[in-house]
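ARCHIVE CARD
SHELF: 3
SLOT: left
DATA:
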Amino acid sequence: MNSASFTQQLNDYNNKGFAQHPSHNNAIIRSRHNQKESTGNEEEEKEKTKYKKRVFGDAGDVEGFKGPWTPWDEELEMNRKLNENALTAEQVEEIQSQIKKVKAAPVRETFKIRSIFHGEQFRDYLGRTFVEPPTDLKPVEHDCYLPKKLVHTWSGHSKGVNAIRFFPKYGHLLLSACNDGQVKIWDVYNKQKCIRTYIGHQKGVRDICFSNDGRRFLSTGYDNNINLWDTETGECIGSYSNGKTSLCVKFNPDEDKQNQFLAGSSDKKIYQWDINTGKTVQEYDEHLGAVNTITFVDENRRFITTSDDKSIRVWEWGIPVVIKTISEPHMHSIPSIAVSPDRNWFVGQSLDNQLIVYSTNDKFRMKRAFKGHITAGFACQVNFSPDGHWLMSGDSDGGLWFWDWNTGRIMKKIHAHNGVCIGAEWHPIETSKVATCGWDGNIHYWD
């Protein structure tokens, strides 16, 4: 044995009480104290691990013979202790009575579609409701001017406002859709307060659309439902759902087709619904991503759709076949589209921070682009002034931008909201009044 092995064995002897004998390789040397302890422990371990012999019984006794299923004595002792600690019948009854006394958790009420009227009286002294436009409002052609200052703020939503729409032709009412699941309609001319709240979605409302006369409107939300409302009474006339989230809705502008509307869905399809039957009558399935916008052109015989697949597609009404596809490598997703008042051009809000212009004729060629604002990642609305002279858009920093349609120059920028300015609508009659909405929950009115 060398010195290293000897040192190791010495350490084992001091620490453990045994080591290899230096003279005999196969011999083990132990200390006296360790030898006594080990002997005693070994005997105790043997006694503990020694199973007591089970009594199987006589094999000739058919009823008494248990064979290998005879329980061990330890199992019998454990069962005996469990039976001693078991609850009595009286104790079980007492516990059950205490459980019955505990009040059950309140049942959550089922969601109920409803509306709330906030006005003082439903009809005025002439018997007219708030839907009737003021007698002094007459839609006529006029020149528009850029707004200069904030004149009013509508506040009442608890979350960000996704969309706003003026009442068709007259603009005496303003409809707003919010992420709190509510749609509100506001008075523009008189007291400028909320007139009615429409509660019909359990999640945020994504888009809204008036009918031609403004008596009805559609709302679509992230709860996969599309609701048709009576603007005046607040009654939900119908609810439509196919289990998918509709990101945009649009009535057919033709007077004889006001019973049908289109819904762009997150499942890459456009559904054509019939209000009278409550069913889909057509599906347009060519996009490769969620459908973001629907815009009617060419005297409403065709409509344009944009999608997350970064393409623009043109369809014939009622025919589920694409007649024109615009898809270039440099294109980005277009979450908002506006048509010029002369119906010859449409502008798309491209997510590469520019507004792109296309013609609405058969060729659908790109004309030019407007730049300067930052909208990447946000579906900021783009819109025209009623005379077609100005083009406006919100941006991600809360700004409101104005361009000259003819020259393409940036004419003005207004800091409209503290968050993203998601929507902007020009009043159809007033020459220089613009409404904006943002994710700060406010709706601003500019003049």
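SLOT: right
DATA:
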Amino acid sequence: MDTPTLEETTAPSPWVTYEKTNPDYDEIDSDFDVLPGRRINQIVSKEKQKLRTFVNNQRMELKLKMENPPAMKMRDKLSFVFGIIDVCACAFLLGGYPQFFIWKHLIQLPILTFVRWILYYKQKHHYFLLDFCYFANFCVALNLLYFNDSCNMFYLSFSFTAGPLTWAVGVWRNSMVFHSLDKITSLFIHVSPSLAVWAMRWKDPSGIWNQCSKEEISFYDATIFPLIPYILWQLGYFVIVQVIRRNKFKADKERLTSFLWMKQDTKHVVNKAMNIFGPKYSYHMFGVLQLIYTFVVMLPIKIFYQSFWAHTIWLTLVIIISAWNGSSFYFEVFSKRYQNQLEEYQKNWATVSEALKANPSTDSVKVTSETIKKSE
């Protein structure tokens, strides 16, 4: 009897049948004959790519709908209307029900701060929330909620709000721009706590929010004492930004703080002042300048604390300055920028929409994403 050959004793490979029946077999590497598991991995990868393409398409389409000119106009109109309503509500509550204005401030503060953190985190600007204005807001909130019987805490809140926070409106050009959530939030952070403390000082005779009955304040309590927590904040800020997170900022130049932002503005007077002794000591000079600025703007606190009219006129002037900054922005900057932005979106709207409808593929997603980024 003849001995059977190897070909006759070996069962046919299942991949022979697959090769004959599957038209896509030519696309498979020869390694699949040995490792059929790779075919499964290829199928899974293709399905994952399809799912990724679908999700990207949906995201781009949603973003496109949100940022087309009609949606932009509607969104900005709604923001403007709610901004006006908020101003009217502030005036009504401060004039008739100041205790409820304080509640309004306490409710809005965490909401706007959290929204800003989300938006700034995406832009890598969230370290701005370590700035002194947020620390001051935190102190005022503590005073309102937990230490309303502490005169020292109230002195601190009064000095911070009537001093650095209100002066910052003019220095940093905070603007009453109702359609911009970012600008309205900045204005809120500086003005709303100042109005809340004004209500505590002059419109809370029953002592619900402020149980400190002292009508006089010393120069030490008004100007010197607040510098102690200010310096503690400055030291904490230095440790976080210049020690703990130093490598983060070196590795990623898009991450910004107030110091890094000011460092980029070479024309600003503060930038020139903090580089007097060279770039090596620019951060130290920036801290010294902040400390001097804080001390100077808190010099008139004693007058504001003891005079209703001085305090009221000062806050009114601050609000007028913010309105002036807003009008300058609308007529000198925004009108041209907004028109250019709308024209750019209108130019790309038809092209991108057709790309999504005609070819919902990875290439169309890429084109859509690039087009939207150019529009921004």
